[in-house]
Design goal:
2 domains, 3 helices, 16 strands, 37% strand, elongated
Length: 220
């Protein structure tokens, strides 16, 4: 396991703040070994948690030209037919994956093809499980069209704690299924909007792994 590049700056800041904090504790409580020990232990725990959040585990990316791969680690919280009003403006099957602070927060392209549409939207920071978060929170919307002409929209959605969405996407570029497409910091959600006749391979409550779990397959 390695550290993701998005975590380098944050980990450096966290380490600097904790070092400064412990130096201050030492200055004011140098005669109390117990307080110094507690301060060091708490600081090491907090630093470990920050490093843990930005971990980048080894993955074996799955390529499935007729299917959709999970764009993120997490728990499937929504599978329903809904109206997608930003791009398709018609009925789609929505799958939503909730990412807790314990999940790996790297995002992956759910299918390969051409990026036909990309938008970044500023917005609120509602709880990511809130249905309104898909249209009201800070988010990105990306539409990919594969070689068979099938289009899928996915959204990176910020949550109450998540305050920064990182994306590696540009309109018109060719992307590879299961490669990294971005990162969301500290708790969030990803929505995928699929054609109505798509065969869904997961159910609500399932835990999925980004770049590895097949969540749906297109009808032939």
């Amino acid at each position: 396991m390695t550290i993701h590049k998005e975590g380098t700056h944050t980990i450096s800041i966290a380490a600097s703040v904790l070092i400064f904090f412990n130096l201050a504790v030492y200055v004011f409580f140098c005669d109390c070994t117990l307080i110094l020990l507690i301060s060091v232990l708490i600081s090491l725990f907090l630093l470990f948690m920050v490093i843990f959040f930005f971990r980048k585990p080894k993955r074996i990316p799955v390529i499935n030209s007729s299917g959709v791969i999970a764009p993120a680690d997490g728990k499937v919280v929504v599978i329903e037919k809904t109206s997608e009003n930003e791009f398709f403006k018609d009925e789609r099957i929505q799958i939503s994956i909730f990412m807790s602070v314990w999940n790996v927060h790297i995002n992956f392209f759910p299918l390969g093809g051409t990026v036909n549409y990309f938008r970044y939207h500023e917005g609120k920071y509602l709880l990511a499980k809130n249905p309104k978060s898909s249209e009201e929170n800070e988010r990105t919307s990306v539409v990919i069209e594969n070689k068979k002409g099938i289009k899928v929209l996915y959204r990176q959605i910020a949550g109450t704690v998540a305050r920064r969405i990182v994306f590696y996407v540009r309109e018109g570029e060719e992307v590879v299924q299961s490669e990294e497409c971005g990162f969301i910091k500290f708790g969030s959600r990803v929505d995928i909007f699929l054609p109505p006749d798509t065969d869904i391979k997961v159910k609500i409550g399932d835990k999925v792994k980004g770049s590895e779990t097949v969540i749906a397959e297109f009808s032939e």
